[in-house]
Automatic annotation (TrEMBL):
Gene3D superfamilies: CRISPR-associated protein Cse2 (1.10.520.40). This is Type I-E CRISPR-associated protein Cse2/CasB. Signal peptide: none annotated. It comes from the Bacteria. InterPro entries: CRISPR-assoc_prot_Cse2, Cse2_sf.
Length: 210
């Protein structure tokens, strides 16, 4: 495989969340009781603090490798994992098709959702909610807007990459790069969401010769 064909780097938490989301959605499609119960536990924990629900913790971190030790319990990475998987459980509710799909970022998925609103989508409620998300002053406020937007994505059966979301949510929790301030890290994530939100969808059609 050439360098240009190599898969993009995926962090430990990204890979873990992608794997768990895939396992849970596959179990749901197979009508397997343990996975159905696991998703219900995660949904119930969506509005709770990490660590409050031991059952949800066990579901979210099944097979999780050693923690990254970037903070006393819970680490920023653990926070990202937990928040991403509880949101995934909300997104997957009553859906047979997987709501985790490798690739689409949160911004891209919500951009697709906004365009589904029709010709006035640039001023519609989805755009207003997204703008509130990317200008939120706290992780708690961000999570509140996220839950609302995930509910809209579920209603329209629009998937997103929950591994990527876990990375972003670890930044909202406080994770930064070397030399980066907390505000700079948040701005980096919000700008990436906004960029992906604003990009037009890729066209699969080929140009015709006149």
């Amino acid at each position: 495989m050439s360098t240009s064909e190599q898969q993009p780097y995926r962090s430990t938490i990204n890979r873990h969340v992608a794997r768990r989301a895939s396992e849970l959605s596959a179990g749901l499609r197979g009508n397997e009781g343990p996975e159905i119960a696991a998703l219900a536990k995660l949904r119930r924990a969506a509005s709770t603090e990490i660590g409050d629900d031991a059952a949800a913790w066990q579901v979210a971190f099944l097979g999780f490798p050693d923690t990254d030790n970037d903070f006393p319990f819970p680490s920023f990475g653990e926070e990202g994992v937990y928040r991403a998987l509880t949101l995934f459980a909300l997104h997957q509710q009553s859906k047979r098709e997987p709501m985790h799909a490798e690739g689409p970022s949160l911004g891209a998925a919500i951009g697709r959702l906004a365009r589904a609103d029709g010709p006035d989508s640039h001023t519609g409620p989805i755009v207003r909610r997204f703008n509130a998300l990317v200008t939120a002053d706290s992780a708690e406020e961000s999570r509140w807007h996220l839950r609302s937007l995930i509910g809209q994505l579920r209603a329209h059966s629009i998937p997103l990459d929950y591994g990527r979301l876990a990375d972003d949510l670890s930044v909202l929790a406080g994770k930064t790069r070397n030399g980066e301030s907390r505000d700079e890290a948040l701005r980096r994530v919000h700008l990436r969401w906004s960029r992906d939100f604003s990009r037009p969808p890729k066209s699969n059609s080929k140009p015709t010769n006149n």
